[in-house]
Amino acid sequence: MPEELKIVVCAKQVPDPEGPPSSFELNSEEKRITPRGIPPVISPFDENALEAAVQLVEKHGGTVSILGVGTNLSASVYLKAIAVGAEDSYMVDDPELDPAILDSVTTAKILSDAIKKMGEFDLILTGRQAADTNAGQVPAGIAHILGLPVVTLAQSITVEGDKIKVNRELPDGYEVVEVPLPAVVSVTPDIGEIRYPKISAIKAAKKKPQTKWSAADVAGEGVPRNLLNLDELFTPVREPHCEFIEAEDISEAGAMLAQKLVEEKIL
Fold it and tell me: What b-and-e string marks burial along 32-71, b requiring 16 or more CB atoms within 10 Å of the CB?
C-alpha cells in the first residue's frame, strides 16, 4: 500500500435536488433549465464518494482532496466537504464551464487536467452519477483520459497493498473486482451516507486551503469543444386516458379487465 493514501474526490455543485419542481424553469429556446431560489449543494451521490474516501483514510491514513468544476462555485459549499474530512479543495471555476452546456466528455477532460495539475494521487472517487443530469459517464471518461483502470457502482472498497478490492453492484447481487492503484472508482449510496461535521471541524475547515483555477489554468488553451449536441429540450406533454369497465358484477368486471389487459399486452 502507498505510504500515504492520496484520494481525490470529484464533487459536482448542483441545485439542491430537494427543491420543488416548480422552482426549475425550462427554456426550450436556449436549451437549459434554470433553478430559481434553490441553494447549491454537493451532489448527494458525490457525498457518498466523500464518505468512502474519509472512511479509507481513517483506516489506512492519508489525505482527501475535493475537486469541483463549474460556474459560480460556492466556497461555502466546498467548505462543508472539507469539514467532513478533506484536507483541501480545488475549484475550476469559469464562465465557460456552465454545467448546463457541458457534456460528459468535456467535463471528464477538465477534471482530468485538473487532477494532473494537483499532483500525485492513488485513488479518484466519484458518485455513481450527478444528481442533475444522472448521466454517470464522467468516471469512465476520466479513467480513459488518464489511462487508469475504472470500477463503477462500488458498494465497498478495500485497500490491499498496491491494489484495491471492490464489491461492485449487479442487478441480482454483486461481483468482486480487483484493480491496481492508481484507479478510478464510482460508488453507490450503499457505501455510506455522508457524516455530519462537528462545529469544531467547520471552524477548522476555514483555515484549510481552497484553490481556485480558471479553465485556462488547467486546460491550457481553454475549454475543449463539446462532442455532444443537444437537439431539443422540452417538457413532455402527458394526456391521461381512463377507461371504465362496466359489468353486472365484480366477477364479470374482473374477467373483462383481464381480457383488456391481455389485448393491450400488459399481461
Answer: eeeeeebeebbbbbbbbbbbbbbbbbeeeebbbbbbbbbb
**Grid cell at residue 168:** 461492485
Instruction: Tell me how far apart the alpha carbons of residues 51 and 57 are, in angstroms, rounded to a whole number.
Output: 10
CB-CB neighbours of 130 under 10 Å: 22
pLDDT digits (tens, 9 = 90+) for 117-146: 999 999 999 999 998 888 899 999 999 999
Comparing CA positions, the residue from 93, 160, 91, 166 lying closest to residue 125 is 166
Walk across the sheet containing 183-187 and list its strands: 173-180, 163-170, 150-160, 183-187, 123-127, 5-10, 62-70, 88-93, 210-213
Give the SS3 label for residue 213.
Answer: strand
Instruction: Specify the range with the lowest mean pLDDT, choosing from 88-102, 150-164, 198-212, 218-232.
Output: 218-232
Distance in angstroms (rounded) separating the CA atoms of residues 258 and 263: 9
Calpha distance 23→35 (Å, rounded): 6
> Smallest Cα–Cα separation from 99: which of 41, 32, 46?
32
Cα separation, 216 vs 1, whole angstroms:
35
In the prediction, which pLDDT does 222 show? 67
Q: Give which of 133, 83, 84 is closest to 108, Cα–Cα.
A: 133
Q: What is the pLDDT of residues 222-266, one digit of tens each?
A: 677 787 788 888 888 888 888 888 888 899 999 999 998 998 888
